[in-house]
Automatic annotation (TrEMBL):
InterPro entries: Fact-SPT16_PH, PH-like_dom_sf, Spt16
Protein function: Component of the FACT complex, a general chromatin factor that acts to reorganize nucleosomes. The FACT complex is involved in multiple processes that require DNA as a template such as mRNA elongation, DNA replication and DNA repair. During transcription elongation the FACT complex acts as a histone chaperone that both destabilizes and restores nucleosomal structure.
Span of domain FACT complex subunit SPT16 PH-like: 2-96
Keyword Transit peptide: no
Name the record gives this protein: FACT complex subunit
Gene3D superfamilies: 2.30.29.150, Pleckstrin-homology domain (PH domain)/Phosphotyrosine-binding domain (PTB) (2.30.29.30)
Molecular functions per Gene Ontology: nucleosome binding
Source taxonomy: Eukaryota, Metazoa, Ecdysozoa, Nematoda, Chromadorea
SUBUNIT field: Component of the FACT complex.
One Pfam family here: PH_SPT16
Keywords, ordered alphabetically: Chromosome, DNA damage, DNA repair, DNA replication, Nucleus, Transcription, Transcription regulation
Species, as recorded: Gongylonema pulchrum
Keyword Transcription in annotation: yes
Gene Ontology biological-process annotations: DNA repair; DNA replication; transcription elongation by RNA polymerase II
Record-stated family: Belongs to the peptidase M24 family. SPT16 subfamily.
Length: 144
């Protein structure tokens, strides 16, 4: 949204999810709202903040002179970035929970309990949380 600001009240948040980038290519925080917020001319019930951690696609046609060293170094940099991003997002979640006096907490999907399903016309991995069954990484979000 290019620097635009949206105010979301804590008491308007129905569900808050934090998905670390442990086994994912993106790290995200997702809010499902009780009442939609108006941005532009549209109402939005779900708000999501995310960033990509690594390359989602790889160009197999690239030519590398020192491929092994470059690959090892890029993997090391990606691991460090994942660790740093997990820490930044986790610190934000902790600050929000402290500021609201534990009024709500962030659900984290259980990756090891995830399974494939077809909630709409495409297959995706559904992951349970303590209160919902979600898929936050795909373009069509799923909340059950």
């Amino acid at each position: 949204m290019r620097g635009d600001k949206i105010d979301v009240l804590y008491n308007n948040i129905k569900h808050a999810f934090f998905q670390p980038c442990d086994n994912e290519m993106i790290i995200l925080i997702h809010f499902t709202l009780k009442n939609p917020v108006l941005w532009g001319k549209r109402k939005y019930q779900d708000i999501q903040f995310y960033t990509e951690v690594g390359e989602i696609t790889t160009d197999l046609g690239k030519y590398h002179h020192m491929q092994d060293r470059d690959d090892v170094q890029s993997e090391q940099l990606e691991r460090e970035m994942r660790k740093r991003l997990n820490q930044v997002f986790q610190n934000f979640c902790d600050k929000v929970v402290r500021q609201t006096n534990d009024a709500f907490d962030f659900d984290v999907p259980f990756n090891e309990l995830g399974f494939f399903g077809v909630p709409f016309r495409s297959s995706c991995t559904l992951k349970p949380t303590s209160s919902c069954l979600v898929n936050l990484s795909e373009w069509v979000r799923v909340f059950i």
